[in-house]
Design goal:
Elements: H1 3-20, H2 26-54, H3 64-78, H4 81-98, H5 102-119, H6 122-138, H7 142-159, H8 162-178, H9 182-198, H10 202-214
């Protein structure tokens, strides 16, 4: 049911209850609105996260984490493991990317990975793998990091998220360089550049060029 349909459904149920005395659908309408609120809170948090990523002088928005936590609570109450997995990912991502706190982030990312894999939610599954790979890379576990990013890329290819594949390849290039596989690192960045350029992923292209200067 679309957003507009859920709201109109609630309005109709209200009219049935107030004018007709039929309250049988109130609980169902409430669940629909809870699902809508969960989706909206998650989306609002994502917008704040995107603003952080693109700010010249980024600072955490105090509303971001509460939005993700609200969506998580609602998805849990609704018994929606797919939504729960996505909300868990974003909480983990905030702790890792915004707060640079892998110790707090990893348990959220691992729970997200488990729920997304069981739900067959490949986009969230791939995101959780990517960020667990980043954590492994930071900790110096290069083989694990490479495995995580390669699996994330496989899932992203399956769903057609090719700019995301290019983004993962930057991490894989850094890992290759750290493992003294510089030729592999350069080739990986070349392929990533071709993918990102073909899909208009200009921010990814900038990250690739930055990686070239560091590898």
């Amino acid at each position: 049911m679309s957003t507009d349909e859920r709201i109109e459904r609630a309005r109709e149920v209200y009219r049935q209850a107030v004018y007709g005395g039929d309250t049988s659908a109130l609980a169902d309408a409430q669940l629909g609105l809870d699902a809508l609120e969960a989706d909206t809170a998650l989306a609002r948090g994502m917008i704040l996260h995107a603003r952080f990523q693109n700010a010249e002088d980024p600072a955490e928005d105090p509303d971001e984490l509460p939005l993700f936590e609200r969506s998580l609570a609602l998805y849990q109450a609704l018994g929606d493991p797919r939504g729960e997995g996505e909300a868990l990912f974003w909480i983990g991502c905030l702790h890792q990317y915004v707060r640079r706190d892998d110790e707090t982030a990893v348990p959220y990312l691992e729970r997200s990975l488990d729920l997304a894999a069981r739900a067959g939610d490949k986009p969230t599954w791939s995101e959780a793998l990517r960020h667990l790979g980043i954590s492994a890379h930071r900790a110096g576990r290069l083989d694990e990091a490479r495995e995580r990013l390669e699996e994330s890329s496989r899932l992203r290819r399956e769903v057609g998220a090719l700019p995301g594949v290019a983004s993962n390849m930057i991490g894989l290039a850094y890992i290759a360089a750290a493992q003294d596989r510089r030729a592999d690192a350069v080739a990986t960045l070349d392929e990533a550049h071709a993918i990102a350029g073909a899909h208009g992923a200009h921010a990814i292209v900038r990250h690739i060029e930055e990686a070239r200067t560091r590898i």
